[in-house]
Protein 1
Amino acid sequence: MTDLPLSAAQTILDATLTEARRLNLKPLALVVLDGRGAVKAAVAEDGTSLKRFEVAHGKAYGALALGIGSRAIGKRAVEQPTFVAAVSHVVGGALVPVPGGVLARAGDGQVVAAIGVSGDTSDNDEACAKAGIEAAGLTADTG
Amino acid sequence: MTDLPLSAAQTILDATLTEARRLNLKPLALVVLDGRGAVKAAVAEDGTSLKRFEVAHGKAYGALALGIGSRAIGKRAVEQPTFVAAVSHVVGGALVPVPGGVLARAGDGQVVAAIGVSGDTSDNDEACAKAGIEAAGLTADTG
Amino acid sequence: MTDLPLSAAQTILDATLTEARRLNLKPLALVVLDGRGAVKAAVAEDGTSLKRFEVAHGKAYGALALGIGSRAIGKRAVEQPTFVAAVSHVVGGALVPVPGGVLARAGDGQVVAAIGVSGDTSDNDEACAKAGIEAAGLTADTG
Amino acid sequence: MTDLPLSAAQTILDATLTEARRLNLKPLALVVLDGRGAVKAAVAEDGTSLKRFEVAHGKAYGALALGIGSRAIGKRAVEQPTFVAAVSHVVGGALVPVPGGVLARAGDGQVVAAIGVSGDTSDNDEACAKAGIEAAGLTADTG
C-alpha cells in the first residue's frame, strides 16, 4: 500500500470544502481515511448535527471494508439487504450504504484512501468528495 | 449552541404531561436531551412498559444525530431502509424512526434540545412533545 | 414488587436536589430507577459534564443488579476486582462501583427503587441520595 | 455552551503540530472535540501507528465525559482502578486515562472543547495540546 501523506489528505479536505461552499451546500462533516482505515484528517463545518462525523466515517469505512464506493454498496443494499446488514455488523457498525464514501486510487489503481462526506444530499456529498480527491491528483472511485 | 437550562427542560416535561392527560393518552415516557445529547430531564408515567424510556430516548437521540425530527427519519426509513438501519448502528442503536422525537430550536434556529415521547400512537406522542416545546417558548421541529 | 409511583420518584429527586444545594455541591446528575431498572425520573443540573447521567445511572443500575448499594460494590471491587469487572460486562457496562447508588426499600424490606447520583465526591453524592429517599418515606440502603 | 468554530479548532491543531515539530516528537495523532463530544477536526501525522486516532480520541472524550483533564483521570485510575474501568465501559470504551486529553475553557470557565494528543510520551503529548489550546486564546485544563 502506498501511504497517503498528510499533505495530500489536507489537499483533499480543503478542495472538498471549497467545492461545498461553491455549491452552497448545508454544513458538512468530512473524513479522510488512509488505506488502513485509520483517520488521517477530518473536519466538521459549523452547524453540523451531532453524529455527522460518524455518518461520514461510516461511508468511507464501508467503502474501504468492501473495496467499492459507498454508492455501489447502496445498490447492493437494495438487492441484498441482509448481506449489507450483516457486513455492517461485521465491521462494528461503521458502514453507511449511500453515496458519499469514495475511494481514492493512485496511478497504479491501488486504493490509498477513502473520503466520507455527509451533511447535504448523498449525491451532493459525493460530488464534493470526488472534487477533493481529484484535486490531490488521485482517481475517485464512487462505486 | 445556547445551553438549555434545567428550568426550561422541566417546563417542557410538565407541559408535555399536561397535554397527555388532557388528551387522556396511555402512560408515556418522556425525555429531554440537551444539544449535546445528554439527558437533561426525564419521567415515566405510572404503567409504562419496561423499555419505554429507551424508545423515547431513541426518538430524541436520532433526531439530534441527524438534525431532523424523527418523523422525517421515519419517511427516510421507508425510502431507504438500509440507510436508517446503518445510522442506527452508527449511533449505537439509539435511533427510533417514528414520530415523537422533536427538535427544539431557539429564536435563531439553533437546535438547543430534543424531546422524545413514547407510549401512545406516534402521532399523539409527537403532539404532546410539540406542546411541551412550545410551552417553553421554543420552536418545535417535528421533521 | 411494589410499584414506585412517579410522585414518589419526583419527591426523591426534589429532596436530593434540595440537599445538594444546601451543601453547595458541584452540579449533579440524578436518576431514579424503579424496581425493574427502568428510568422513572431523572434530571441533570446546569453545568454537568457530558456523561454524568450515564455515571449516575450506572451507580443505580449496578445496585439493583446485585441487590446491594454501590458502596458495597465498591468494597467488593477492591477485594475482587475481576468479579466486579465481569458483572460490569454482564450488565452491558451499567455498573459504577463507588458510593452514590442507593437502594430504596419499602417498609417490608422490598427494593422498590434505586437512585444514582454523580457530580461531587462519591460520599457527598451518596448523602444526597439518602436524603432524597428518606424524604419519600423509604429506607435508604447505601451498601 | 459557546460553540467552538472550525477556525478555532484548526488554530488549535496547527499550533499543536508546530509545537510537536519544534520539540521533534514522534508522529502524533490529534483530535479536537467540540463541547458535545463531536469530532470537530483531526489529523494524524505520517508514521502514526494504526490506532493512534482512537487513543487520542479516548483521551479527549474521557476528559469531556467526566469534566476533568485526562491527567486527573489517570490519578484516579491509580487510586480507584475499578471506577475508571467502569466509566470507560459506560462511555463505550472512549476513555484513555493518561495525560494528553486537555479541556479548553472559555473566559467564563465553560468547557468549549477538548483536545486529545497521542504518539510521544504522555507528558509531551499534553504539552503540545496545551500549546495548541493557548494559541486559540483559550485556557488549557490538563487535570
Note: The interface with chain D takes residues 1, 3, 35-37, 92 of chain B (CB under 8 Å).
Protein 2
Amino acid sequence: MSPLLLTLDFVGTFVFALNGALTAVRLERLDVFGVITLGMFTGLGGGTIRDVLLDALPPATFVDWRYLALAAGGGLLAFLLSRRLDRLAVPIVVLDAVGLSVFAVLSAYKALDMGFGVVQAMIVGTVTAVGGGTIRDVMIGRIPTVLRSELYAIPALIGAGCASAAYSAGYHGTVAALGSAAVCFVIRIVGVYFGLDAPRTRGHH
Amino acid sequence: MSPLLLTLDFVGTFVFALNGALTAVRLERLDVFGVITLGMFTGLGGGTIRDVLLDALPPATFVDWRYLALAAGGGLLAFLLSRRLDRLAVPIVVLDAVGLSVFAVLSAYKALDMGFGVVQAMIVGTVTAVGGGTIRDVMIGRIPTVLRSELYAIPALIGAGCASAAYSAGYHGTVAALGSAAVCFVIRIVGVYFGLDAPRTRGHH
Amino acid sequence: MSPLLLTLDFVGTFVFALNGALTAVRLERLDVFGVITLGMFTGLGGGTIRDVLLDALPPATFVDWRYLALAAGGGLLAFLLSRRLDRLAVPIVVLDAVGLSVFAVLSAYKALDMGFGVVQAMIVGTVTAVGGGTIRDVMIGRIPTVLRSELYAIPALIGAGCASAAYSAGYHGTVAALGSAAVCFVIRIVGVYFGLDAPRTRGHH
C-alpha cells in the first residue's frame, strides 16, 4: 500500500474509533475503559471482518500495533472531549462518513490487489465500511445504522464500485482512491442532510 | 458438491435471506436497503461462520457471486411482498425450517468431505443452521430463536447427526441428504405446531 | 501446551460455560437447550475469536471434542442447579473472574508460542478473556460487561501483561501462568467487591 493510502487507512481507523467512542459517551453510562473499548471495536471491527473474508489472517488490524494505538487513541480522545458533548452531534456524523468512505475504497483496493473480482471488492468494501458501526450498534443495543433509515450501505457500495471501476481501468493510485472516497462521502452527507430515505415498507406510510 | 446438493445450498441461502428480510419487513422500521441487508446477513451469515470454523476461507458465501445474488434477491423479494404482510406468518416459519434443514445437512457433509470427524460435522451443521437466524435476531435486538423456547437447535443437531451417520455408512448422495433434511424439517415443524418445548427452569412453572 | 496449562484451559472453558448458562437461568426465559447453547457460546466464543486473530484455524475449541463436551457439561450443570438460583449471585461473579484470568493468561501464552509480539499477546489475551462474556451479553440483549462499569478488561490486560513479561523473561511455565492469573483474579474480585469504577463521563457525576 502506498504511504498515502496507508495514511488514509490509519485516518479511517482513528475517526471510526473516535466516532464509536463519542457515541458511547453520549450514552452516558460508560467509564473511560468502556469508552475506549467501544472505540477500538468500532475502529478495528470492519477491518478484522474484511481480513476474515479475504483470508488475510492474522488481520492487519491486529498484527500492526499502529492500528491498535490509533483506535485506542481515538477512544481516549473521545473520553477527554466528553465535556463538550452538546457540540458533538455534527462531528459524529461527519467522522462516521469519513471512515465509511475511506474504508469502502481501501478495502475494495485490498481485495483487488489480492486478486479477487470486482463483485467481491465491492462487497468487501461495503462490509468493511459498515462493519465497525454495526458492531458498535449491536454492542450498545441499537438497531444498526445499516438497517435503519438514511442511505448508509449504498454510498459505501457506490464508493467501492467507483474504486473498483477505476482500478480495473488501470488507475490504482491515490487520486482515484480519493475521488472514489469523495463520491461516497458526498452521497452520505447529502443523504443525512436532506433526510433522504430509500422506499420503505407499508408500515411507514 | 453434486449439482443437486449445490442447488440445495442455493435454496437454503435464498429462503434464509427471504425469511430474514420478511422478519425485517414485519418490524416495519426498515427501508428497502435495510431489508435487503438483513436478508443478506441472514442468508450468508451461517455459511460464513461455517467456513471460519472449517478453515475454508475465503468463505464460499463471499467468493461465489451466486450466493451473493441469491441472498440479495431473497431480500428484494421480501420487500416486494411486504404489502401482503398479514399472510406471511406461516411462510416465515416454513422458510426458516427449510433453511435450517438444508444448512444442517449440507454443512455436515462439507465438514466430512474436508476430513473432519462426526462430532465436528454435527456441531458445524448445527452452528451453520442456527447462525443466520441468530445474527438476524441479534441485529434487530431480539433474544435469538436458538435461545428461546421451541425446538430449534435440536432438530438441526439431529439432522446433521443423521447426515453424518449416513455419510459414515457410505451414503454420501442426494437421497441421504434429502432424508436427513426431511427429518430435521419434520421435527422442527412438529415442534412449532404443537408448541413443544424442552424442560424449563423454575421461573416458568 | 503442558498438561497443567491444558487443564487450566479446560477449567476456563467449563467455568465460562457454567457462568454463561447460570446467567441464562437467571433470565428465567430459556429452556434446557437454550441454557446449554448460551453456555457453549460463552465457553467457546473467546477461544474461537482468539484462533481467528492468531490465524490458528480451525479453532481448537471446535477441533478438540473435549472443549465442546466441557462447555456443554457446564451448561447442563447450570440447568440442574437452577433450583438453587437465589444462592448463585456470588458463584456467578467468581466463576466469571476465574475464566477471565485463565483465558487472559493462556491466550497470551498461545500468541507468544506462535511467535507474535508482546502487544499482540496482551491484546489477544484480553479479547479472549472478555470475548465469551461479551457474546453472552449481546445474545441476551444486555450492554456487555466489558463496556459497563467495574474493572473488567483492565484486569485481563494486566494479567496478560504479567504473563507476557514473565514469558519474555524466560518463565514459560506453570508457576508464572498461575501467578499472572492470580493477579488478574484478585484485581477483578477487589474491583467487584469495593465497587471500584474507572473515571466516568460527565453524565454520571
Note: The mean pLDDT of chain A is 88.
